[in-house]
Amino acid sequence: MVSIMNSDWQAYESTHTWHPYTSIPASPAPLAVASASGVYLELEDGNRLIDGMSSWWAAIHGYNHPVLNDAMIDQIGRMSHVMFGGLTHKPAAKLIRQLVEITPQPLTRVFLCDSGSISVEVALKMAFQYWHGRGRKKHRFMTLRRGYHGDTIGAMSVSDPDNGLHKMFSGLLVQQIFLPAPPLLTDDLLESERLTETRKLFEKHHKECAALILEPIVQGAGGMRMYSPQYLQILKELCVEFDVLLIADEIATGFGRTGEMFGCNHAGISPDIMCLGKALTGGMMTMAATLCTATVADQICASEPGVFMHGPTFMANPLACSVASASISLLLDSDWKQCIQSIEAQLNESLSELGASRNVDSVRVMGAIGVIETHRPVDMKAATAVLLESGVWLRPFGKLIYTMPPYTINKSQLSEVARTMAKLAAL
Ligand SMILES: Cc1ncc(COP(=O)(O)O)c(C=O)c1O
Known about the structure:
Blueprint lengths: L1 H15 L16 E5 L2 E4 L4 E4 L2 H4 L8 H13 L11 H13 L4 E7 L2 H18 L6 E5 L8 H5 L19 E3 L12 H14 L3 E6 L3 E2 L5 E2 L2 H13 L3 E5 L13 H5 L5 E4 L11 E6 H9 L15 H16 L2 H17 L7 E7 L2 E6 L5 H11 L1 E2 L6 E4 L7 H15 L2
Parallel strand pairs: 3-15, 5-6, 5-7, 7-10, 10-11
Antiparallel strand pairs: 1-2, 2-3, 4-12, 8-9, 11-12, 13-14, 14-16
Helix pairs in contact: 3-11, 4-11, 5-10, 12-14, 13-14
């Protein structure tokens, strides 16, 4: 074993391991990371890359942050994990209080789970159980086209059925109700066909739908699409009018990424259920949360079977709770709004002129998110060579070249990221 690890561990790994959305071996071959610090990924071959991805939106404070490290080391000395069934602990209590305080009111009941996809499953089950408790048979969900909510079977069923990652599973999934995709910021917001179609679907299906699930303000992995707060308000109003709960999936948008603490804050709305993940622990541990109102929770608890039917083994893992608390405090103690605004201004300045380039379809920026959409899919092999040469890490998918850097990135590092995005767009 030791000899394999010391000699050619990468060859062994590549013939035995799945990476996200790859075959075995993965192509192009994954880059081997030896360590990470600040905004840098240090590769085994000695190269150093500025991370423009924050490890899929999560590492908002950068890597190897002493405050986050200390929180984990301190917690390891007490206990890394105990079951949450029949037991509880201070790290969970502290985190739950923070989450209740920073999320839109009145989200006051919290379920801590393992990953974003699972928090979506939990949200769907909460909505179902709420209506079940009220004696209503609402067993389907509404969702927006171009959305993405995760890779588990329930989460896939509410993700875009056509454009995306899950098309081949359609025969396996519950057929949900897909509302039109929200208009991009450059589209006509109140374009009547879209709204008429949306309203019609509410009229036709609200009796069988427990909730509408959506990503507020920015649709992430389904297309990196930004839309207006006013459109979100319209959808919220339809949910109220038609007795459909609203689930806000803030797994990607939460914790400041869009310029507000949560996407819902842009619209001044509060959902009935909210999912959080990714940046919850500052990218240090896998953990997610599903919050709901007391109304939803009370109904679930007051009716058969009198409990919420979910309980994962690693629920409320104390190590993850401790580092999540530390990450939230670090964010709140920083001038995060100003920081996101200056990232947004710089991304706007450096990317907007690329909109006129031959290969580029459009450029979109919101908060600490910068996107270039090209006319044809990015050649990943050529892109990897450009990334290594430029000393920047990005992970384009399809026609989308995007960055969501750690909030701690400085101006010259962000310039490197933007320059590299331009090079990728020119491939
Ligand atoms: C909006 C949204 N929801 C859910 C998920 C799934 O989260 P996870 O990958 O942690 O399961 C993602 C992941 O990209 C996401 O962006």
